[in-house]
Amino acid sequence: MLYFNEPRRKFIHQKFNFLDDFGRLIESGSYIKGDMGRELEVQIKQYLNVDFFSGCANGTDAITISLMASGITKGSKVLIPAMTAQASVVAVIRAGMVPVFVDVNSQGLIDVDTTEQAIKLHNPAAVLVVHLYGLTASLELIRKCQENEIVVIEDCAQAFGSKFSTGEYAGTVGDFGAHSFYPTKNLSTIGDAGGISIKNADKHIGQVIKSTAEYGWNNQREVIRLGFNSRIDEIHCSIISNQLKDLSKQSRSKKETCKTYLDGMRNHYAFTPMASNAEVSRCQLHLFSVCVKEPKGVDEYFRKRGVILGRHYDRPLPYHKKFTEFDFIKTKSKSNASEIAKTQRSLPFFPYLLNQEIELVMGIINEYPS
Ligand SMILES: Cc1ncc(COP(=O)(O)O)c(C=O)c1O
User: Fold this and answer.
1) Is 189 in the pocket of ligand 1 (CB under 6 A)?
2) How far is 264 from 34, CA to CA, in rounded Å?
3) What is the pLDDT of residues 249-304, one digit of tens each?
4) Which domains does the chain have, with CATH numbers?
5) Minimum CA distance residue for ligand 1 atom 12
6) Is the pTM of this model over 0.90?
7) Which atom of ligand 1 is nearest to the CA of 62?
8) SS3 at position 224
């Protein structure tokens, strides 16, 4: 079976580098907050060209810690797109904030007009902008929120390495960039890890983030705020660091796949790609998303031919049982998020996908009855 994502392929590629590092790590005796962690922070700061980067346990924590460190008071409202991973909203609630869902546009990104409407209606303290599928959300919206002193957290869990049209990386234009290094993500490890980036960070905010991620203590180990244990293990730092070195190769491999998909997909009536050629060239796509005109039976059709499609996501967040109590500002009565939940599918898409695998997918799409 060919799955929509297969992280094993990129890790196997670097197995011997990892094994060397594991040997060094075991002998070093320093398993948490050691040299590998410090090196990774420097490498990511250089890659993103930011003042601050700090690792934490996962992407959900990265959002929670950013909100906790932002100075926003508990109970404040945070706008969040209706179409994103469950983790995004869980992180907001866990930080003590109240989410307000905002509908997305046809690409699954937070809708600009609807966000402006939601700002007028709800006076939010922050907006969680999600770069879904690796596509960057509106830069103009981010700037406008900042002009209005609304804190912007960029959820970059799916977009490490994606750039805005200005050439700036995702995670470097908002007040905080929250990253996930979960195995399937663009930059990842063989377990859980995450991190927070800040373009222009003063010393204070950096200290608050690091303290919040470690019990809330200061350099003297006195607890001065409520924090939790959200560190990144050395073993993961070493793997992420190796993956970062391989990232441009992985990116080339994925961009070639995108090009073949975009050029070779002849059945545009039935399958519409959600990213354009221009977006593919500046963004580091995490998923290759298509809208399926008649989604009934499509998953079974592909499965019978050896391909498992993904769905991201089949239920908009406001319709999860736990989240129905929160407001949802829609673009139209049925909402774009609901339409995407029905029609979106993720094609097999990961570094080092083989030509014959891409051809298999293209063949199924181009022969799909429409
Ligand atoms: C958009 C988005 N935000 C946040 C997260 C949370 O990341 P993690 O699983 O590392 O906590 C994910 C991961 O699934 C995600 O896709």
Assistant:
1) no
2) 48
3) 999 999 999 999 999 888 777 999 999 999 999 999 999 999 999 999 999 999 99
4) 10-241 (3.40.640.10), 246-367 (3.90.1150.10)
5) 157
6) yes
7) 11
8) coil
